[in-house]
Amino acid sequence: MDCLFCKIIAGEVPSTKVYEDDMVYAFRDIAPTAPEHVVIVPKKHIASANDITDDNINYVTAIWKAVPKIAKELGIDGGGYRVVNNCGSDGGQTVNHLHFHLMGGREFGWPAG
Ligand code: 5GP
Ligand code: ZN
């Protein structure tokens, strides 16, 4: 399958690993929009949030279990952070492998622009 994030998980495309367990891989975004910007992906190919089902929701649970661990590792747990999923073209998704952006180290406005 020609999927960039599957290749990153497999080590075929290099990345800067921040966290890994049996279900989750997290790496630094190549074009960060915050002082700390990590992409968290399931180790199973799930194309987008539209494809989350009862059969794969355990990967999403695993990602959210990893979030506070990664935030603590990055030292942004105290200040806080934002977690974002972009789904589909209107949502701004550019890589069709489900992922969550974990961003911190600066303040974010709300509502998001
Ligand atoms: P999306 O726009 O789909 O929500 O997020 C995709 C993210 O992947 C973008 O923030 C983009 O900078 C990041 N990205 C795209 N290609 C690469 C890459 O080859 N390596 C890394 N580390 N990040 C990438
Ligand atoms: Zn994939």
What does this structure look like?
With 113 residues, the chain is an alpha+beta fold. The chain has one domain (4-104): HIT family, subunit A. 26% of the residues lie in helices and 22% in strands. It has three helices and five strands, in the order αβββαβαβ. It has helices at residues 4-10, 57-74, 88-91; strands at residues 17-20, 24-28, 36-42, 81-84, 100-104. A five-stranded antiparallel sheet has the order 1-2-3-5-4, covered by helices on one side. Strand 2 and strand 3 (36-42) form a beta hairpin.
Q: What's the quick description here?
A:
The chain is of the alpha+beta class and 113 residues long. It has helices spanning 4-10, 57-74, 88-91; strands at 17-20, 24-28, 36-42, 81-84, 100-104.
Protein structure class: alpha+beta
Task: Tell me how many strands there are.
Answer: 5
Described by strand count, sense and barrel closure, the largest sheet is: 5 strands, antiparallel
Strand content bin: 15-25%
What gross morphology would you assign?
Answer: globular
CATH C-level? Alpha Beta
> What is CATH's topology name?
HIT family, subunit A
| Low-pLDDT regions | none
- Measured on Cα atoms, how large is the radius of gyration? 14 Å
Question: What is the fourth-level CATH superfamily?
Answer: HIT-like
Bound molecules: guanosine-5'-monophosphate, zinc ion
User: How many domain regions?
Assistant: 1
Number of helical elements:
3
